[in-house]
Design a protein that fits this description.
Chain A: This is Actin-related protein 5 isoform X1. Chain A: Belongs to the actin family. Chain A: It comes from Solanum pennellii. Chain A: InterPro entries: Actin, ATPase_NBD. The complex is a heterodimer of chains A (about 725) and B (about 120). In chain A, about 50% of the residues lie in helices and about 10% in strands. Chain A has about 725 residues and is an alpha+beta fold. Among the domains of chain A are: about 15-50 and about 85-165 and about 675-715, Nucleotidyltransferase, domain 5 (2-Layer Sandwich); about 205-270 and about 590-675, Actin, Chain A, domain 4, CATH 3.90.640; about 300-370; about 370-410. In chain A, the strands form 6 sheets. Chain A has a 6-stranded mixed sheet, with helices on both faces. In chain A, strands 12, 13, 14, 15, 18 and 19 form a 6-stranded mixed sheet that branches. In chain A, helix 3 crosses helix 22 and helix 19 packs across helix 21. The radius of gyration of chain A is 48 Å and the shape is elongated. By secondary structure, chain B is mainly alpha-helical. A two-stranded antiparallel sheet of chain B has the order 1-2. In chain B, a hairpin with a 6-residue loop joins strand 1 and strand 2 (about 90-95). Chain B is extended. The chains are: A alpha+beta (about 725), B mainly alpha (about 120). At the A-B interface, strand 6, helix 1, helix 2, strand 15 and helix 4 of A face helix 3, helix 4 and helix 5 of B.
């Protein structure tokens, strides 16, 4: 882990006298503060501020740097994320900067009424004067600093490595930071800003690219892909490919080598509990319970039936008795009277009621009701009026006759339909038998044929569906305009619409547009908007039923058959029912391992239209003054790579290859990595500030007030003292 | 405030002994103060770099020019070399399998892939 925060409060602040400078490396990602002349900064933390609200008291507090994330559980961080004082590599929010400086000085142990030490603070190359001025103002006015010096971090890093003998006093520094990358040439130990160049790509972009790619690839694990996690992944696994194209081809072919280079991050996962099939006992118990219930239902039904039979029998007996009684009575009038007293109009009614009750009794007892023969018997008398010619009938009888004719024809038609159905069933049965026979003869061939037929039919149907809907739905809703993309075929409805429109436009009266003058013209729109589904004939229906039949048959006899397994729609549905496995909780880093850091060399991967690191060297060399002989060769023979984004494996090799491509053949090229690409800038600054001549390079508060901004603009720092 | 939070000194104290002007004096509470800082773009504009002599290095003119080489076209999904371009989604793709996936991608994912290389449709 190259980045480690150190935020313990230092206790020896008082032991440094007031001329001892404080050195600050104010980088876009990390803030480092310490004492001049020491080898390590005292305090290091991420250069961010959060202003969360305390959950119980509700007060807004300021949290600087990265802390134990566990402690942040007491705070509501949803309203504000971590904020940086930097935009690109320039400090622009000085309120945040002030919080950071507060925290830095506090942890350094400052306990006097003001910061009574000269300060050396880093800034970016060619920092805008506004930013520099504000920083000076802040340091002088809020902290009471006696004097300040501004230097460029890359220059300090180069100087430090030059002192260690790693690079010459004339050479190039390639520094890749958090938000920007610079190439700065040095002549005799002094940076030549006229020839330096900056590309706005850095570690931030690499991490962001990786984060975005992973969260698009694994949308279900977005919550796991926090900035800190992804940053860790980047530092642990990313590397620079010697040649992007060949490296990516390795992965495209899926070689064993690529497999070895693939990293897998297993997210915490526990297998979901597998549902055990119910045991024998359970099944038996359930069956018994079911049986018991059905038994109860059956008993209930039986009781109901017997009570009904009882009732009906009683009624029957009553009616029988009534009929017996009727037999005894001879007088017509008496019969009527007697019946009226029992609620009946005539003897006939009693008889019909008797017949009815007998029938329902039979039904209740479960005997066959001889209704069929009754119909047969009564057919002749039911339609007794049919054969009598019309002129012999009265008006009422005529009506009756018409009714009978209608009834007769419908019953006959019904019978005919029944007959036909029977025949059809027989036919089907026969066909089935035939098929079965075929199957018996050669099961494999039969299956093959069935499958082929299924495929053909389903394709046909699919094709028809596609033609109708143009497959827009299947392909998702990318078609924002709703129109049809270039090169897409129109569907049937659209074609028809087109045809109608063209005929309307060009059919009559060439040259003059008369559409709309006659009312019929407007009928066109009715035609156009007609739903195209209604002109389906029964042919597709036939196909569909056939398809359904075949698929059901296949399901019966073919265990490997899945309906519609080829079509994409059902394929996307299947995962829903699939239980989650270990593989679903893995984040695979394959091409991403070198695709993301590649943005340093190809910023156009993330849409930044600037040259990458290797080309920047060429740009910088072209910007150098041309009057020095052999300067370019001198430059390329001492190239120092520094900064946090050059920690990837393979950076130096790639840079050397890239620079070799843009330089003439035989150019001496030497690319070296800084001893500690992250800490060297601070160490260089520390060494510099400890030098005797350092105070000459600083400017005091009076300088700042007297000389004004224009002077600050021309303020230039000498690195060689 | 919880004990462990206080022990870790997580919260920055509002009063700093070493400061001449405290934060609460500089930015009093409860006062709407609007935006008191400039964005980098505004800073650069305020610098009036166009009035400077051209040989003087400034924040703007040290920027690297666009690359001399044609940009490498890579598949937006897989990162492979992408010979093809889908006119509907505007995504670049490497082969038929990727094409299948990009056609089944929801529109917002397409836009996010495009945004990665700064090619998304930005609605204002």
């Amino acid at each position: 882990m190259p980045f480690i925060s150190k935020i313990e409060r230092q206790l020896d602040y008082g032991s440094f006298n007031s001329s001892h400078p404080i050195v600050i490396d104010n980088g876009a990602s990390y803030f480092r503060i310490g004492w001049a002349g020491e080898n390590e900064p005292r305090v290091i933390f991420r250069n961010i501020v959060q202003r969360p609200r305390h959950k119980t008291t509700g007060e807004t507090v300021t949290v600087v740097g990265d802390h134990n994330p566990v402690l942040l559980k007491y705070f509501d961080c949803t309203r504000s994320g971590p904020r940086s004082a930097f935009e690109s590599n320039v400090v622009y929010q000085f309120e945040i900067m002030e919080y950071i400086l507060d925290f830095g000085f506090d942890r350094l142990g400052a306990d006097q009424s003001q910061i009574d030490h000269p300060i050396l603070i880093t800034e970016c190359a060619c920092n805008p004067v506004q930013s520099r001025g504000k920083m000076a103002e802040l340091l002088f006015e809020s902290y009471g600093v006696p004097s300040v010096a501004f230097g460029v971090d890359a220059a300090f890093s180069y100087k430090y490595n030059q002192q260690l003998g790693i690079c010459n006093d004339t050479g190039l520094a390639i520094t890749s930071g958090f938000t920007t990358s610079h190439v700065i040439p040095f002549i005799n130990g002094e940076p030549v800003y006229e020839a330096c160049c900056r590309t706005n790509v850095g570690g931030y972009h690499v991490t962001d690219y990786l984060k975005q790619l992973l969260s698009l690839k694994y949308p279900h694990h977005i919550s796991k892909l926090t900035w800190e996690r992804v940053e860790e992944l980047k530092m642990e696994h990313c590397y620079i490919a010697a040649d992007y194209a060949s490296e990516v081809q390795l992965f495209q072919r899926g070689d064993k080598e690529a497999e070895e280079k693939t990293r897998c991050w297993q997210l915490p996962w526990s297998p979901s509990p597998v549902e055990e099939p119910p045991s024998e006992e359970e099944i038996a118990r359930k069956a018994a319970l079911k049986e018991k219930q059905s038994q109860r239902l059956r008993e209930m039904a039986e009781a109901k039936r017997s009570s009904k039979i009882n009732e009906l029998e009683n009624e029957l007996k009553g009616l029988e008795f009534l009929l017996e009684e009727l037999k005894d009575i001879e007088e017509e009038d008496e019969i009527v009277l007697f019946l009226a007293s029992r609620g009946y109009a005539s003897k006939r009614e009693v008889e019909s009621a008797f017949a009815k009750v007998t029938q329902s009794l039979r039904k209740a007892k479960g005997e066959q009701v001889p209704s069929e023969e009754k119909v047969d018997i009564s057919a002749a008398e039911k339609y007794y009026l049919i054969d009598i010619p019309d002129d012999e009938l009265s008006a009422e009888q005529l009506k009756e006759k018409r009714r009978q004719v209608f009834l007769k024809s419908t019953t006959e038609a019904r019978q005919r339909a029944k007959q036909r159905r029977l025949e059809e069933e027989l036919e089907k049965e026969k066909e089935k038998k035939l098929e079965e026979q075929k199957r018996m003869e050669n099961p494999e061939r039969y299956l093959e044929q069935l499958r082929a037929k299924y495929k053909e039919l389903s394709e046909k149907l699919e094709q028809r569906k596609r033609l109708k809907t143009n497959g827009n739905n299947a392909n998702g809703n990318n078609n924002v305009s709703g129109g049809v993309g270039r090169g897409e075929r129109l569907n049937a409805a659209q074609r028809e619409r087109m045809r109608l429109l063209t005929t309307a436009a060009f059919d009559r009266g060439k040259g003059e547009d008369t559409f709309g003058q006659r009312d019929e013209d407007w009928q066109l729109y009715k035609l156009m908007s007609r739903d195209n589904d209604d002109d389906d004939d029964d042919k597709p229906d036939h196909d569909e039923t056939e398809l359904a039949r075949i698929s059901s048959r296949l399901r019966e006899i073919d265990p490997t058959f899945f309906p519609g397994s080829e079509s994409g729609a059902s394929a996307s549905e299947t995962p829903r029912f699939r239980p989650l496995t270990k593989e679903d909780f893995q984040i695979i880093l394959g091409v991403e391992r070198f695709r993301c850091p590649e943005v340093l060399f190809n910023p156009n991967f993330i849409g930044i239209d600037q040259s990458g690191l290797d080309e920047m060297v060429g740009v910088s060399l072209r910007r150098l003054p041309s009057w020095v002989q052999g300067l370019e060769d001198k430059m390329t023979s001492s190239i120092l790579v520094t900064g946090g984004s050059c920690l990837y494996a393979g950076v130096a090799e790639r840079l050397e290859a890239g620079i070799r491509m843009i330089r003439p053949c035989g150019t001496p090229i030497k690319v070296v990595r800084a001893t500690d690409p992250i800490m060297d800038a601070w160490r260089g600054a520390s060494v510099y500030a400890a030098a005797m001549q350092f105070p000459e390079q600083t400017f005091s508060r009076t300088d700042y007030y007297e000389k004004g901004e224009d002077w600050l603009r021309r303020y230039k720092f000498k690195y060689t003292i | 405030m919880e004990r462990e939070v206080l022990e870790a000194e997580l919260v920055l104290p509002t009063h700093m002994k070493f400061k001449k002007i405290q934060m609460y004096d500089k930015y009093p509470k409860g006062q709407a103060r609007g935006r008191h800082w400039k964005h980098l773009k505004q800073i650069i504009q305020a610098e009036n770099y166009e009035n400077y002599p051209p040989h003087l290095p400034t924040y703007v003119n040290i920027e690297t020019p666009p690359s001399m080489h044609p940009g490498k076209k890579i598949c937006d999904i897989t990162g492979f070399e992408a010979p093809y371009f889908d006119p509907r989604t505007k995504l670049r793709y490497a082969n038929t399998e990727v094409f299948k996936t990009i056609r089944s991608l929801p529109n917002d994912h397409v836009q996010r892939y495009l945004a990665l290389r700064n090619a998304a449709v930005v609605l204002r």
